[in-house]
Amino acid sequence: MAFMTSDSHDPTDRQVQILRLWKQVAQDNSSAHHFHFEREYTPEESRSRAKEFITTPSEQTFKTLWDPMWSAQRSGTANTIYKKWHDHGQTDKELASLIKEILHADHYDASWQGELGARRTLWELFGFLHIEEYPIINGYAERGLSFFGYDCPSDYEGCANVFSEFRTAYESVVGHATAGTEHEVPVNFEIDQLLNVIDKVSAGDLDREANADARQLYEMVLEESGDHGVSEPEEYDGINAATEDVLSKLGRTALLNSC
After folding, report:
1. Quick one: DSSP state of residue 36?
2. How does residue 232 score in pLDDT terms, banded at 50, 70 and 90?
3. Distance, CA of 114 to CA of 61 (rounded, Å)
4. 46 sits in which H/E element
5. Per-residue pLDDT, 26
6. Is pLDDT of 175 > 90?
7. 4 burial level (CB within 10 Å; 0-12, 13-18, 19+)
8. What's the pLDDT score for residue 158?
9. Rounded to whole angstroms, what are the CA distances from 184 to 101, 103, 178?
10. Alpha carbon of residue 1 to chain centroid
11. First-to-last C-alpha distance (Å) of the chain
12. Distances (CA, A) of 118 to 72, 121, 148, 194
């Protein structure tokens, strides 16, 4: 796969320091706060779950594939997507056919969004299923790229081009950090986990993290970002997903108040 790229830019000296420290942390550790190279839902596992759903399509196997994704937890869980699919008169077999098409595709097809909705979750799923060639694009990836000075457009292909630009800069400093380790993962997944760290790290993690190098990495990221613990806004794939999330939160609040 060849990405079209615009004029690239070099990371700042401080960002280079962050990338070098990330290389050391990623080589020496399979996980820490906010990154997990061997977590339960890896690209390999997502492909396995996709194949399971294709073979035995059901609401449960769809949940197993769909719900672990970051975007699904914020813009439409499997329950919502599955119900909408069946409300439109479509079957499990037809949904399995769509997932099979996504699994075996050689490029992202925006028409899937019209069939299934959940644009951002489809971006994330496609990246998981094709991690060697394509990136995982979601909210934390976009904010992590922004940290390094790369802004994503509103389409998957455009975001993938931006990711490719950053990957060039990343590899010039980091290379393939996990190569040859027992927790080796594709470079795109390495970057995905770094971007998650960039987006999620908070001052409280400095006390919780036992690994000294990881702690230093978090400190550098917080200093560079000027983080003050302000939460990012939730992201949704439309008003219906936003309304359902708000109602769900109100329901949980009412339940807690009644206890």
Report:
1. E
2. very low
3. 22
4. helix 43-55
5. 97
6. yes
7. exposed
8. 96
9. 28, 22, 5
10. 20
11. 55
12. 8, 5, 27, 24
Cα-to-chain-centroid distance, residue 221: 19
Q: Which two tokens stand for residue 52?
A: 């399971």
Predicted TM-score (pTM) of the model is: 0.83
- pLDDT at position 4: 41
Torsion angles phi and psi, residue 31, rounded to 5: -165, 160
Asked if 92 and 98 count as a contact pair (C-beta separation under 8 A), the reply is: no
CB atoms within 10 A of CB 100: 16
Residue 192's DSSP bridge partners are none
Q: Measure the CA–CA gap between 145 and 162, rounded to whole angstroms.
A: 8
The identity of residue 165, as a single letter, is: E
- Find tokens 């996990």 and name the residue: 178
Q: What letter would DSSP give residue 90?
A: -
Residue 221: exposed, middle, or buried by beta-carbon count in 10 A (0-12, 13-18, 19+)? buried
Dist. CA 134–CA 143, nearest whole Å: 18
3-state DSSP percent of the chain in helix, strand and coil, to 5: 60, 0, 35
For the chain, give the number of residues: 259
Across residues 227-254, what is the average pLDDT?
43
Of the candidates 243, 162, 221, 196, which has an alpha carbon nearest to the alpha carbon of residue 15? 221
